[in-house]
Amino acid sequence: xxxxxxxxxxxxxxxxxxxxxxxxxxxxxxxxxxxxxxxxxxxxxxxxxxxxxxxxxxxxxxxxxxxxxxxxxxxxxxxxxxxxxxxxxxxxxxxxxxxxxxxxxxxxxxxxxxxxxxxxxxxxxxxxxxxxxxxxxxxxxxxxxxxxxxxxxxxxxxxxxxxxxxxxxxxxxxxxxxxxxxxxxxxxxxxxxxxxxxxxxxxxxxxxxxxxxxxxxxxxxxxxxxxxxxxxxxxxxxxxxxxxxxxxxxxxxxxxxxxxxxxxxxxxxxxxxxxxxxxxxxxxxxxxxxxxxxxxxxxxxxxxxxxxxxxxxxxxxxxxxxxxxxxxxxxxxxxxxxxxxxxxxxxxxxxxxxxxxxxxxxxxx
Length: 365
Ligand code: SF4
Prior knowledge:
57% of the residues lie in helices and 10% in strands. The chain has 365 residues and is α/β, with parallel strands linked by helices. The chain has 3 domains: 2-126, Rossmann fold (3-Layer(aba) Sandwich); 142-157 and 160-207; 209-365, Rossmann fold. The protein has a 4-stranded parallel β-sheet with strand order 2-1-3-4. Strands 6-5-7-8 form a 4-stranded parallel β-sheet, with helices on both faces. It is globular, with a radius of gyration of 21 Å. Bound molecules: iron/sulfur cluster. Residues 49, 51, 79-81, 217, 219, 280, 305, 308-311 line the site of iron/sulfur cluster.
């Protein structure tokens, strides 16, 4: 069995830790790129959302490297994601490519027995004893939490760094170095080392950088290629950013969902404007916008793929929040036709607006 999984932010790092720990071959698709999107667009229905197309590109590029099995997380509500697995299986049948899918759905949807049998399809290929398999899983979760923490810290500290570009340089070399070992314990050691390095980055506490919350559809905000590397660009501009939705957040949220204790703060914050789930993470987007304003951020940028149903609902609500709370929010829609120049111009104009608002407030006081 040669396993692959679509790219979803830093998940590839945790997936490598897991499969190295289990002793199962993991074929990582090339990092998301234009070619993957072109291949994906060629095989996908035109009107389907961007994540689907990029995922198809990932699978085909991974098949070329020898992958025969895809692991895919299950649905997150009444949007197209719930149909991804079925549509992707049908597509590969139709084009005659032999690819086995293992869909990891929530036990509330498929039952514990079925979930166990699907997980068993993976674990039976590991020669490690059960106890070591559990250890591999625990270490993979630790890797995921660490890389998400490091990324969050780097994105926020970039606004305060004394040596311009230091946080970005550390983040990039961390992601590179952690892939250079096949030992999950070493991966954890490397990540802890980088966490310490970030903690000792020289910062200027008197700086008061522009702070922007990144909100919107989970795939698009987590996967840098799909958002034209917006967080990297904001680091270059010396802007501090915060994004609550991460792969580790997603795992915690999914595990807690059956108890209804998941993301309470976000749900509470959203309740005045949107009290029910609308699929995807539409409700979270609203809650995060409210929280960002409360936490003193200067503004928020919502990013979502063209035609994303849950985020269209959120987009319709965000202007009310913006008006009521005097909080600037910009929405950016991305698809395979999005041009970088126009995208960058809008981001720069938004930063300009936030800076001018700051100056106006200062001159009035
Ligand atoms: S949340 Fe939006 S982009 Fe993501 S699968 Fe659902 S409809 Fe598509």
